[in-house]
User: Fold Steroid 5-alpha reductase C-terminal domain-containing protein from Lepraria finkii.
Amino acid sequence: MAEVHALDDYYLAITLLITIAYQLFFFSIAFTLKFDKLTDFAGGTNFVVLAIITLAFSGHHNARQIVDSLFIMIWGARLSGFLLFRIIKTGKDDRFDDKRDKFFSFLGFWVFQMIWVWTVSLPVTVLNSPNVTKYRQPNFGTGRDIAGVILFVIGFLMESVSDIQKYMFRSKPENKGKVCDVGLFVWTRHPNYFGEIIIQFSIFMIAVSPAAYGYAHGGAYSALYASILGPFFLTLLLMFVSGLPLQERPGAKKRYESGNHWESYLIYTKRTSILIPFPPQLYVHMPTILKRTIFLEFPLYVFDPAKHADQSKVRDREAEEGGASSGNG
Assistant:
């Protein structure tokens, strides 16, 4: 199959147009029918579509392209499959309760999803592009390739296993409201996020090999290294936008105000690393300065009841509990 120079030599325009069309198609269904079950499915499967199309267009199917394309397909398919299964079980997505009926607010989420898919796909998109495939590549199996494969397997297992562990934990009625502190969650509060970050950097590590080993030159060399924007974007997203900031302080605030296993949650956060897996027996004795720097538990994640809690809700809850105790007495 001859190379297809579709709009540009790095497939940046064609993948952007495909992503926009793909997301708008699912957005139209989700908004018209008020149907939440397609949202995350559309995001995950979009990665698969881009990888298949760029690999097919490239006309050069060396092992490195195939492996890296398969990796992002496997990751995207697993992610979309799991999220689809979860939303079918839960019925609706609470994230959209204030957006579902507002056209532009709801569209804003889908535009952000377009940016996420297109950016995170960059390493595979560029690797499959004509301006890179025109150069010879080192045979697959270099130290960088092997390290990338190992990291992908570790990250994929962490993300997959932790998703299953949390789902199984929360599926048991006796665990309602409890802190999920089983399996991988003993070592890190967010093993799925850590696994996802590792996955994306492993895909980049493999994709950049033609430049790292001196085979690709000029614009291709720069484009391959610039595709690190993909894993960096995902990392920043998880750490500062839609991941940890929405999980940590808001989650702690909700538990504190409702009194929902607050004490056990506080103990859990003190002994469990926020992102990087680490033995809890050591982490609990770690100086705060090291937790804030090396282990990335930045102040924006930390909940201070005096500063961040709605004390009126706490007083109301305590009053209700006091009244209930008096009545029982």
Remarks:
- The chain has 17 helices and no strands.
- The first helix runs from residue 12 to 33.
- The two ends are 82 Å apart (CA to CA).
